Structures are given as C-alpha cells and as structure tokens.
Amino acid sequence: MAAPDELFCWEGDWGLPSVSTDCLVVLAYAQFAGAPLKLRKMSNPWRSPSGLLPTLRTNQKESLTRPSDIIIHLRKQKYNADYDLSAKEGADSLAFTSLLEEKLKPALIYTFWVEPKNYVDVTRRWYADHMPFPLNFFLPGRMQRGQLEKLRLLRGDEGLEAGEELEKELYRDAVECLNLLSQRLGSQKFFFGDSPCSLDAYVFGHLAPVLKSKLPNSKLQQHLKSLDNLSSFCSNILLLYFPQDGRETFGPKTSCSPAAAPEGGDFDHVPNKRRKQVLSALVALGAMLSYALLTGMVSIQQEALQPQPQPMTIGSHEDEDN
Questions:
Q1: Minimal CA–CA distance to 170: which of 96, 112, 227, 238?
Q2: Lowest mean pLDDT: which of 44-58, 80-94, 142-156?
Q3: Average pLDDT of the residues of the chain
Q4: Which of 303, 302, 308, 301 is nearest to 283 (CA)?
Q5: How far apart are CA 173 and CA 128, in angstroms?
Q6: Does 255 score more than 50 pLDDT?
Q7: Do the Cβ atoms of 276 and 270 come closer than 8 Å?
Q8: What is the side-by-side order of every strand in the sheet holding 63-64?
Q9: Is the separation of the CB atoms in 261 and 267 below 8 Å?
C-alpha cells in the first residue's frame, strides 16, 4: 500500500485547526473528501519541502503549494468532494469561488496584513510569538511584503497605496460578497444541500479566521457576525469536522479514534529520538543564527531559543518516519 501524501501547514489557534486561510481551505476539503493525509503542523515554513505553507508532498515526492493545485491532485486520487454536484451546481461553485478571490480575499489581506492595528496587535504578534528564533525577527515582515504584492496583483494596481479610500472600497466589495454568500446559503447546512463540497471549503477557509480572531479593527468581523447563517456555517464545520478533542484525523470520521491518531505522534517509536531532535535543532539554529548575525538584524542577546514543534501522523495510516 502506498504511503499517504503529507500535508505541511500552519498550526492552529483561536479555536481553528490552522490560522492560515489557504491551509484551512485544504484541511477542510481533505476532510470533506475523506482524503487520508499525514498532517504536519508547524510554525516554521522553512521546515516544509517548499519553504511555504501549505505544502502537499505527494508520495511521488512532488510538492504542491496552491490550494487549487492540491485539490486537483486529491481529485485525481479519487477524493472528490464535488462528485455529486450537477453541471449547474459545479458552474455555480466555480463562480462563487471566483467571487471570493475577487471580492473577499483582498479585504482579508488588508484586514490582517495592512490595517496597522490588526497587523501589529494580532498578525505580526502571532507569527513572532510562534516562530522560532531568529526567524521571528524577519519572516513576519517578509510575509507582509508578500501579502501586499498579492493584494496589488489581485487589484491590478502596482501603485496601490494603503489608506482610508482603499479600505472603504475593499470593505464595500467584501460586504457585497458576504451578502451574496449568505443569500446563496439560505437555511441550508451547506451551499449545495446536506453534503459539503469545494465551495464550502473555500468559504470556510476565508471566513473562519475573520470570525474567530480577536481583531482591534473589526468592521468586517462585525458584519460577518451579523449574518447568522454564515456564522453558524463556520461553527458547524468546526464542530463536525474539527472537533475540539485534541485529535485531528483525516479520512472517514469513523476512523477518529485513539488508535488512528496516537497522541505521541509518529516519532515515538524511533530509537534515539531525543538525540536526533536536539542535533537537528542545533544545526538549524546555527544556520539561522549565522544568517541573522551576518545581516546585522539581531544580536545573540536578543532572544532565547524556542522549541521546535513536533510532527504528527493523522488519518487511517500508522506510518514510520525513518
């Protein structure tokens, strides 16, 4: 039997399985489709095969980073959450997914990465607190610049500048998108009936961080909370597919058992585990510290070493890492 694909993603907080929109989209789709993946949550993107999160490493050693590419790959593996959609429903799903990208995503980037108080008090603080030293000194800023570039591409304006006028325009588009999504969902459990599909994954991934984070500037959050059906939609997905019981298992929900997801992770049985972890941490620390010192960004006295997160195995597989 082939080894399961591995999914590397940002770790969770705020009652969410991940703080990243893209990671949430992939996590939700994999759950909806019953795809058995080996999950590795982390707060250091340099530990993923691509240096980015999310990354899906297939059993053919290919690395995929875009949610759409990961979903296409899972469909090719016969894990298709859209299998039961009619042709019209499939077209509607694509249209609403495009609407999210065009109207809502720019506002989310602005809310978390551009709005000064939200960025300083929530976004930058979270990543700086969770990343290992010395990455926490420079990676949040690099990530912000990447998000600003993404916002410019989405808006088609290379000279885009943050300001009150831009914020109003983005907020107006986002409110329009949220209202249309609320109307389409209506009183249904999911967007196309009783079973979730890729659109549900995209909507959940985009809305859940807004709903759950504690934002100082929360205009968009307040409007989302005023739409009861969308708020309930996110809460129901968290309850059904990401229960707060300390275990995160992909695949059929009947496999969510202690045997399927041992608490200690998949490295507990490896000999000399502690020695290997310490040596790996020292090598990584030395490389990162040398880079930071050579570029003059930090001094040795600025921060203490933070422990690295450990990977875990999820799904219906119990595979060994050698």
A1: 112
A2: 142-156
A3: 80
A4: 308
A5: 31
A6: no
A7: yes
A8: 38-42, 6-10, 55-57, 63-64
A9: no
Structure tokens at 238: 């968290």
Between CA 134 and CA 280 the distance in angstroms is 16
Contact 124, 140 (CB under 8 A): yes
Strand bridging mode 55-57 / 6-10:
antiparallel
Q: Which residues pair with 63 in a beta bridge?
A: 57
Taking a C-beta distance cutoff of 8 angstroms, is the pair 201, 21 a contact? no
Q: How many CB atoms lie within 10 A of CB 279?
A: 11
Are 143 and 313 spatial neighbours (Cβ–Cβ below 8 Å)?
Answer: no
Question: Where residue 150 falls among pLDDT bands split at 50, 70, 90?
Answer: confident
Instruction: Assess contact for 6 and 48: CB atoms under 8 A.
Output: no
Given a cut of 70, whether residue 259 has pLDDT beyond it is no
- Token reading at 108: 């989310």
Buried b (16+ CB within 10 A) or exposed e, 135-174: bbbebbeebbeebbeebbebbeeeebeeeeebbeebbebb
Residue-wise pLDDT tens digits, 280-307: 455 455 555 554 544 454 443 433 334 4
Instruction: Show the tokens assigned to 73.
Output: 């790959």
